[in-house]
Amino acid sequence: MSKITVLSDKKKLIRKIKIAIRIAPDTEIQVGSTCLKDFLGHSDPENIVSYIAWAQGFKTWLDDIDMDETSDYAGARGWQWYRMDDYMAHVAAVAEKHGYISKSKAAFDETPTADQASNNMTSKGKDWYIPVTDAQKELAVKMVEWGKEHFTENQQSDYDYNMFLILTHGDNTDNPNKDYFCTKYSGYLTSLHPTYMREMELLIRQQNGTSGYIGTVGDKMEFTGKVISVASIETMYGMCWITKFESLGHVVVAFMSKQLKMDMSYSFVDVEILEHGTFKGDEQTKIKISFRKKINREEASK
User: Fold this and answer.
1) Listed residue (263, 274, 266, 264) closest to 223, CA to CA
2) Domains of the chain by residue range
């Protein structure tokens, strides 16, 4: 059964309910209300018919939804549709003022950049509104164009593929709403900002012949850096924390036997440069940190 159509026929004071049930694309049969229970095999067939009639009406409402170039649409779940370049311009504005804050790493008292940008789009004239400059609008256009090209050609992870779908609608160039995105995926689209900025920074370094690495492999040195990310993994020797530091604009990675605090700066006196490499396009230096033991006075005097 693919469709139920409920028809009412009023003649004088007698109301007849006729129910047409489509059992095939070109085949419908008419069932009287008294036979509906036997035909459907359900104890409450009227309830089924009522529900299907409601579902058909809801589907018709969804099919009638139309978006034009000048309006945003708030859907059934409250999701909205924005032009990508408009939204990314607000992302650039709030990120420039408050710094970029991802949803996954936002502290309890921080508002992610995605939420800040969405709020900013509807807060013009409010005290907290952050104006969008022409330069930020131009940057937004560049980010979206770069993202469409980059993620069409590079789909090495689920993140890459999801970004491809969001930015290109699956490369459906005939989609009339191809320049829009659903705010359900605002976290994904907002991440285009740091991704683009990192790629541009790497490109500039390559063009200028500069390196994002520190030291030379095999060197031993002192090191000071601020913790920017910590991820735990379990090894055969116990827990290990992959810790990323930022030091004078460089990214440095170390496998730590103890967990360090986020956004705290640490200094180490015995660090060995193990490797220079890249991760997701970012140049980073891998180091080994040795924690010196305190000297035993008795052993030192021998």
Assistant:
1) 266
2) 3-63, 81-203, 220-289
